[in-house]
Amino acid sequence: MGGVCDIHCHILPGLDDGASDMVMTERMLTRAYESGIRTIVATPHFGKGFGYASPEQIYALVEQVQQAAGSIHPSMQVLPGEELMFQFRLLEQMDRGEIVSLAGSHYVLVEFFPGLDFVAVRTAIQEITARGYWPIIAHVERYPCFYGKVHLVKQLIAAGAYIQVNSSSFQQKWLRRDIHFVRRLMDEGLIDFVATDGHDMHGRIPVLDDFTAYTRKKNLESEWKRLLIHNPDRIIQDKPIRRGEKYV
After folding, report:
1. CA distance linking residue 128 with residue 123, whole number of Å
2. Residue 248 included in any domain
3. Best label site of 64, 96, 162, 209, fewest CB within 10 Å?
4. How far apart are the first and last CA of the chain?
């Protein structure tokens, strides 16, 4: 894989609250490419009121979207995945092979209801890892139970979780608790992936501009590469992330 990879994007048409049709998908692909993104892992919601698309549905739509991406540029790649809403029935669905991991790897992108407490999240991580998956917690900044409690995030990492945050959470808005929390995680090296969580072209656009601006301001080029290129590449290769590794 080469270039920047967005591991969390709702770009498949008609499956959830992301792209409504192929016209929107193509617009999102074009904008993502113009912003420097070269690989997108398509992650439609699984559960959360959007139903449970079958792996076959996901793969068929990814093939269709890949054709559109290839017409934008031959180097652009779209890979299958899902954003899994955790409920205990999800564990049974995993056991039956009904979910789609990220790019066919051991990594799975998992989200939680915002009101869930830490113990419930930790139990979920333990159950998922026991099944041989490597869980990535989607947009960890959306869960108030972690605000001001970075030590709890460290416990989840110790339990086998990886941490993803959204690029938009690096905006210059210091008074927001979620943004302050994300910068604390960044300072302590606790973030593994930054993604767009792109949904459309008017609210949640598939670009990484906020994170890129932040890392440029802070002279964090190595972290930019780690979180947007090197760690996503570990997903593509289906290899665990080597924590503490530095990139130049």
Report:
1. 9
2. no
3. 96
4. 18
Tell me the two tokens of residue 104: 């066919």
CB-based contacts of 73: which residues, under 8 Å, 6+ apart? Answer: 33
Range of 218's domain? Answer: 4-237
pTM above 0.90, yes or no: yes
Q: Is residue 177 part of a domain?
A: yes
Tens of pLDDT along the chain (248 residues) come to 469 999 999 999 999 999 999 999 999 999 999 999 999 999 999 998 899 999 999 999 999 999 999 999 999 999 999 999 999 899 999 999 999 999 999 999 999 999 999 999 999 999 999 999 999 999 999 999 999 899 999 999 999 999 999 999 998 765 688 888 999 999 999 999 999 999 999 989 999 999 999 999 999 999 999 999 999 999 999 999 977 665 54
**CATH number, domain containing residue 39:** 3.20.20.140
Query: Domain for residue 245, yes or no?
Result: no
Give dist(CA 228, CA 224) in Å, integer.
Answer: 6
Q: Please identify which residue in the block is written with the tokens 């869960």.
A: 143
With residue 166 as reference, give the H or E element that holds it: strand 162-166
Q: 67 in helix, strand or coil? A: helix
If one counts the domains in the chain, the total is 1
Q: Which helix (H) or strand (E) holds 91?
A: helix 88-95
Burial group, residue 28, by CB count within 10 angstroms (0-12, 13-18, 19+): buried
* Token pair belonging to 149: 């409690």
Contact criterion met (CB below 8 Å) for 41 and 103: yes
Residue 244 lies in a domain: no
Sheet holding 37-42, edge to edge: 4-9, 37-42, 77-80
